[in-house]
Predict the structure.
Amino acid sequence: MSAAPAYSEDKGGSAGPGEPEYGHDPASGGIFSSDYKRHDDLKEMLDTNKDSLKLEAMKRIVAMIARGKNASDLFPAVVKNVACKNIEVKKLVYVYLVRYAEEQQDLALLSISTFQRGLKDPNQLIRASALRVLSSIRVPIIVPIMMLAIKEAASDMSPYVRKTAAHAIPKLYSLDSDQKDQLIEVIEKLLADKTTLVAGSVVMAFEEVCPERIDLIHKNYRKLCNLLIDVEEWGQVVIISMLTRYARTQFLSPTQNESLLEENPEKAFYGSEEDEAKGPGPEEAAATALPSRKPYVMDPDHRLLLRNTKPLLQSRSAAVVMAVAQLYFHLAPKAEVGVIAKALVRLLRSHSEVQYVVLQNVATMSIKRRGMFEPYLKSFYIRSTDPTQIKVLKLEVLTNLANETNIPTVLREFQTYIRSMDKDFVAATIQAIGRCATNIGRVRDTCLNGLVQLLSNRDELVVAESVVVIKKLLQMQPAQHGEIIKHLAKLTDNIQVPMARASILWLIGEYCEHVPRIAPDVLRKMAKSFTAEEDIVKLQVINLAAKLYLTNSKQTKLLTQYVLSLAKYDQNYDIRDRARFTRQLIVPSEQGGALSRHAKKLFLAPKPAPVLESSFKDRDHFQLGSLSHLLNAKATGYQELPDWPEEAPDPSVRNVEVPEWTKCSNREKRKEKEKPFYSDSEGESGPTESADSNPESDSESDSKSSSESTSGESSSESDNEDEDEEKGRSSESEQSEEEGERKKTKKRKKVAEGHRAGSSSDEGSDSSSSSSESEVTSESEEEQVEATSWRRKTAPSSKSAAAAKEISLLDLEDFTPPSVQAVSPPMIVSTSLVTDLEGLTLTDSSLVPSLLSPVPGAGRQELLHRVAGEGLAVDYAFSRQPFPADPHMVSVHIHFSNSSENPIKGLRVGAPKLPAGISIQEFPEIESLAPGESTTAVMGINFCDSTQAANFQLCTETRQFYVSIQPPVGELMAPVFMSENEFKKEQGKLTGMNEITEKLTLPDTCRSDHIVVQKVTTTANLGRVPCGTSDEYRFAGRTLTSGSLVLLTLDARPAGAAQLTVNSEKMVIGTMLVKDVIQALTQ
Amino acid sequence: MIHSLFLINSSGDIFLEKHWKSVVSRSVCDYFFEAQERATEAENVPPVIPTPHHYLLSVYRHKIFFVAVIQTEVPPLFVIEFLHRVVDTFQDYFGVCSEPVIKDNVVVVYEVLEEMLDNGFPLATESNILKELIKPPTILRTVVNTITGSTNVGDQLPTGQLSVVPWRRTGVKYTNNEAYFDVIEEIDAIIDKSGSTITAEIQGVIDACVKLTGMPDLTLSFMNPRLLDDVSFHPCVRFKRWESERILSFIPPDGNFRLLSYHVSAQNLVAIPVYVKHNISFRDSSSLGRFEITVGPKQTMGKAIEGVIVTSQMPKGVLNMSLTPSQGTHTFDPVTKMLSWDVGKINPQKLPSLKGTMSLQAGASKPDENPTINLQFKIQQLAISGLKVNRLDMYGEKYKPFKGIKYMTKAGKFQVRT
């Protein structure tokens, strides 16, 4: 800056117009002077027609602004150029305008029309920049114009313009807060925007204008979660921080149960079981526990947030990582918080400012969750090159992390630190040692000894700090440490630091009975030097004198009086007061003050030991990562992090309208009632991963499919349910789920019976849509078990499948083979939804489980023709239900019908001749089958992952029939659910010999999504894996016996070409499967 | 959000100010100067300083304080991260970020700052977008501009912001298509007195220089991706692909960028490529101290150790040192007490050493601390963790690019306690 005057002298020579270099080097110009003549020059330049001169002038003006010089008197000259064609001049004029418009409001209005014109420009970027400048001019008169412009821009075609509109909202708000209501409307509209470009900016506007309007977020919550990963970094930070607050108001604390368990782990665990004596296991018991002790089930939306933010821990931006870390810290269940530690430790490699902030937060977290950072202890070791503030924070963290096991290493580290040249840091280290000593009893003596050794250090600061810490430590257990007190007493001759001297005196006074000989001597010395001491020391001398007088008045009476007399004439009134007070208290006088009798109690009362604790304790009531947390004080505009609610608010508020395509084909039938149902079911259509402790899934034997039951499915599935009588059911659903579904199953069965009886009542769909899948499964299971008692015309196998799919099918003929329709609903979910939800599959998610719902295998096969069977006809079908008795078995539904005139008695399996490994679980004997009647039995066959036939005899009382069941290869497996990522991972492991690829051409008839899927799933019992791209289909399953994975990928290319890949350890199965699937697809 | 920005040099002059909302008087910086005075050293200035009406958040880089003024609650890392991004952008634009350079390019700086924030909220921070908006000055362009009067401001409006890959410009063209990747690993270690390792970690980065025409889609795979324990990516990397296949798949930004930084898990024992033998002793009686250091190679996988520099902060009591190095040059600054020895390449046959005496302040007692030795070195053609790139493939474009991968190991924060 000193150069400025010098330059102002030579400016006359060099500042001629037309010397363009001049502007490139503003430092060399005299333009910073307040010489008005110079400004005249600039004005002239601005008034010319030459763009280069204008540019020159503008550059100089901007340089002035940058330097903080006042250039406001040029306003009229500059504002004229707002419509200049030269784009750089224009930009610089904008810069100027934004800077000075506030000061020259009237003149600024001249420019407005230019921007208004710009707002109508066909080029989106020009519209955006016009809005941007217009909104940046802080002139209250144009508020209505701005408001209009923002409203218009908020519905602009271009997302970029909408983003600019979002940016303009806080600007307008700060200019005129009366516009709030209107602005909120705009925010609401923009919040609904689906582009990533807008999301960050509008949430920013939301935070500035109406952070309290949490209700605006409900509908957009899921969308924001899903968009998050694609939003730019700055927007991510803002959104995450807002969602943290949102989640705190809307979800239940994930730790509420944990804390209960922690307090009394044994009791809580067993207690719940006792409550439900009949419960077979804790899960079951918990599931049916009373509502007041309802087990915690994480809201799927809560889970969604956690899952979608997790990958952002890998962001390169420290701010984003910190934002996710605080979100996890505040919202995640205890077990999951640990993931953030690694990312936070990584940030410690960053710039020192970043380290500073991160360490502050780590310090707070490490108090609450020590275990999280323990593995990274060494990352907090201090290097001599760290700045002091970083060293001190690292020390704080190390102290917090110290525990019984690692304390030796920590102390060894501290030992090296004590010898550091940085004395502030040494002092902090000594305090840290003191804290370790208080926290960990085992090392207290070691620490104390170490500190005592430090007392002989040459550096006085170190000694003084040690004394202070020793004093605190001794206070905890004074009895054993007479020696140390003696040692300290000797130090009074050398130590000059007042705080340390005072501490020693206090210690001697307090524990004078431990050092009865030395104490009076110390007092003698102190009395001698009393006048030269610091005030704080003098006070302690008086204190010591008083205490000694009370305990040992013989030796110290004179000394005490001497000290008190000295103090009486001290310059400091505190000391004079203290002396007077003490004298009255301890020296008995004639008046016999009532207090003096209690003097001893007053002075020598046992004093509580000081608590050495971290300054970061309790800082976590501020949202981590916030400015307020860093300062440990509420910053302006800080939004409190709300406490978890007691009762979860209604989760259905986050439900959004369903898009058209989910409509089911048979929707027309129930048009009048579809509306409420619609929104209800859509409520589950978010990625509702059922929480880990979903009671239903655990209690079911076929948990595999049902536990995955989530919403992706239900959005389609629930459409199949008939109208929903009880509208409030979605809120009920959770509870009813917990009540155990035994009751429900019964109910369901009744319904089914109702159907059989010919009634077409639709009450069956009273179950919640999310649980319907599992119920159906359990129902059909029971059916199987009780199959013998179910002698009806209907074929339960097909019926249960039908029930699972579409209840309306029940109205159809009994023998309807599993139709295309039955399969189609899940497929409707397919690509577009899957793509939408793709973001969710990042982790261990479970998505679109409907795809797992058992699809009945290829229709019935004949086992025994009625002619050969002398009137007994036997068919079999693969139901694809898990066989309850043995999960390795394929369950086969065997359908008997008696077309003879006599009853057939004693139907059973006899003398199976089985190839090695294959085993059969026979069906219970059917005692009698009346003529014309039919029945179904279920048997399980373990095919041992081979397609060899199981041969056995079917015996009646009179005859024996040799029959054999040969499974299609597709029946030897059960679907598994996995995410795309898991799929790819698994596929990566099964390459080479385990991969079989075949090219094929899809006929025209099967190029649509659902037909392909349906054909594949009919051929093989596989589960669909969600997939991001529309022309790829993935399926996964496990063979029943060995549980080897079978992965099937169908890559459809244009014009019907396709490639089928099967990956499986079982090569034979793979080859056969390829063949079968190709056959199915090309037929 | 961010209200204003002040740039302050080390002598305490505010040489640039920019306001994104209404003007904040520069007198607010007085609080900063106070804190600066208290902190004795520049790096000890607290990054966050509360004042009655504002909060000052600062970063210190290239001997310049970048002080942001904010008025309301905002995550401090948000601001700090942004300020660092500003510095990176300047560096990208001007090659260096220093006071004279900023002063020389004040108009460009101002224009860039204007684009980076809107009303205090970051708008365009990707240097690719910015460069489309405001072209960085080059000597040639400056000359041309002087003659023709054309401008630095791009005459096309930026399309980058609208693109799905905001980090890449459209219509990039090169005659030589090339993609270079540097795998650089740094060893952070603390070695104690006896030569045993207290802590050692490997931090690595992959810096890329990609000059490819059009919109190439690259995949980079590793021979041993399991080594990577913790990674952070440039936003261009497809996270899902990495999760599932451990492959880096990305559409690269144009030019130089940091693709990935990673951390090699601590379980893998870190090979320490050098050792330092030291004998530094002060004697109570005499005013002379002995000083002797030898540096030698340890586990180098047969590669040469180059660019070795030894620095050490000597205790205050040391007045001067008279040392003789067996190779390289050394300096000792008696004011800052900083000893620095530029060793160069280590010859395993003849280990470099530095021997001599230290003269201590007469009468003063011996310093209680031995100095720590900081080490820098480089090993070419070696990634110490053993990480190896398997292959680099390009999709989406027809031409054949030239690909190159370079490995290097460096010392990060490598300290030997004595």
Q: What stands out?
A: The longest helix of chain A spans residues 233-250. The CA atoms of residues 306 and 419 of chain A lie 45 Å apart. Chain A touches chain B through 113 residues (CB under 8 Å). The mean pLDDT of chain A is 72.
